[in-house]
Design brief:
- This protein is mainly alpha-helical.
- It is built from 13 helices and no strands.
- Helix 3 runs parallel beside helix 11.
- It is globular.
- The chain binds retinal (RET).
- The site of retinal has 15 residues, from helix 6, helix 8 and helix 13.
- Belongs to the Brp/Blh beta-carotene diooxygenase family.
- Its cofactor is Fe(2+).
- InterPro entries: Blh_diox (IPR022270).
Length: 299
């Protein structure tokens, strides 16, 4: 079965409907079931969307030899190693850098095809959007986020910080957005984009931290990104192309989950929140992925 462009256009409708469906589902679940489902989301689609990076590197560079694959794999593992060291020596800086890189990555995923802003401004806009998403989430779950950050870095962030962060990132985004619309650099609709922000407001305000994050991460980031990657790798979005994506990411996906299992085992006795382990894990696998996707988006 081939997906037509109209189906791809329906993606936005799918994202909105499934967001509210997931919010409604939460009414029926207790906290534990909700958290379990959230982890299932993150560990399935969330990890899977980053599991084809090596193939994407090969495709963006046009090099497909075995030795290139090995070099890419070694650089990949090196980046993961550097991040781990960074987190052990200066955790607060590493975390700040991780959130900034993630914000950029989320912004890039959402906006790369929706604005024709020139470079530098483009990157700053991606970042402002992503920071707005994170601060919106953090603002509504301030105490819990402060707890996780304290667990990871030993730093206590005052909860007012999230309010000011939300204010600054929100204003920066809105000024940028108005300027983009005014200069006809917007390839989408103003109302549509503002409506999505309203959806995120409702989502983060009503869902728990883990549920809100996983719904955003999977439905609004991982699934659209996975579709873009399938289109890039196979030239079409069809069941065959999706199957081939699944097959080539399977090994990396299993290895990542095994890595998470090992992290969990190491931290088990240290009284860490499972969330903190998740932050370390996401940070380790996210950095190489952000670099790869940035390269894909430049093609
Ligand atoms: C700091 C912090 C969080 C940050 C998570 C981030 C920054 C995730 C980024 C993931 C990416 C970019 C994945 C790749 O595609 C959580 C878990 C919400 C919980 C509270 C504390």
């Amino acid at each position: 079965m081939k997906f037509q462009p109209s189906n791809i256009a329906n993606m936005n409708a799918f994202m909105i409907v499934s967001t509210f469906f997931c919010l409604w589902l939460a009414v029926y679940f207790g906290d534990r079931a909700e958290a379990l489902l959230a982890y299932l989301f993150v560990f399935s689609f969330g990890i899977m969307h980053g599991a084809n990076d090596l193939k994407l590197i090969q495709r963006t560079t046009g090099m497909s030899s075995r030795s290139f694959y090995m070099r890419a794999l070694v650089s990949y593992l090196l980046v993961i190693g550097i991040i781990t060291v960074f987190f052990s020596f200066v955790p607060i800086l590493a975390l700040a850098f991780f959130v900034l890189a993630s914000a950029y990555h989320f912004g890039e995923q959402h906006w790369a095809s929706r604005t024709s802003l020139p470079s530098i401004l483009r990157e700053l806009f991606f970042m402002a959007y992503g920071m707005l998403i994170f601060f919106l989430l953090f603002y509504f779950h301030a105490d819990e986020v402060t707890g996780v950050i304290h667990d990871v870095t030993d730093f206590s962030i005052p909860t007012a910080f999230y309010f000011y962060g939300l204010l600054v990132s929100g204003l920066t985004f809105l000024v940028f957005f108005a300027w983009i619309a005014f200069n006809s650099l917007l390839l989408t609709h103003i109302i549509e984009e503002l409506f999505y922000l309203l959806v995120f407001y409702v989502l983060f305000q009503s869902a728990s931290l883990i549920w809100g994050f996983s719904i955003y991460f999977v439905i609004w980031h991982s699934i659209p990104s996975l579709m873009d990657q399938v289109q890039f790798l196979s030239g079409e979005i069809s069941s065959k192309a999706l199957w081939s994506y699944f097959k080539s990411s399977f090994l990396y996906w299993i290895i990542s989950l095994a890595g998470l299992g090992i992290l969990y085992y190491i931290f088990q006795g240290q009284d860490k929140l499972f969330f903190s382990i998740l932050v370390y894990f996401l940070a380790a696998i996210t950095f190489p992925h952000v670099l790869v996707m940035n390269k894909v988006n430049r093609i």
